[in-house]
């Protein structure tokens, strides 16, 4: 079983990667618009 710390690290990693992908997609969209 995973320790609570490992679960927190996994969740944090997913959040960071999700935010990074959202930011890059928004940057891509604004580049196309302009």
How are the secondary structure elements laid out?
Layout: H1 4-33
Organism: Plasmodium malariae
Keywords: Membrane, Mitochondrion, Transmembrane, Transmembrane helix
Transmembrane segments: 6-29
Q: Could you characterize what this model shows?
A:
Helix content is 88%, strand content 0%. With 34 residues, it is mostly helical. The protein has one helix spanning 4-33. It has one domain. The chain is rod-shaped. The mean pLDDT is 95. InterPro entries: Cyt_c_oxase-like_su1_sf (IPR036927). The chain crosses the membrane at residues 6-29. This is Cytochrome oxidase subunit I. It comes from Plasmodium malariae. Keywords: Membrane, Mitochondrion, Transmembrane, Transmembrane helix.
Query: What count of domains describes the coordinates?
Result: 1
Q: N- to C-terminal separation?
A: 49 Å
| Quaternary status | single chain
What fraction of residues sit in β-strands?
A: under 5%
Helix content percent band: over 70%
Mean pLDDT: 95
Order of helices and strands: H
**DSSP strand count:** 0
Radius of gyration: 15 Å
Sheet having the most strands = none
Q: List low-pLDDT spans.
A: none
Q: Total helix count?
A: 1
Secondary-structure class: mainly alpha
Net shape: rod-shaped
Protein name: Cytochrome oxidase subunit I
InterPro entries: Cyt_c_oxase-like_su1_sf
Transmembrane segments: 6-29
Keywords: Membrane, Mitochondrion, Transmembrane, Transmembrane helix
Write a concise synopsis of the structure shown.
This protein has 34 residues and is an all-alpha fold.
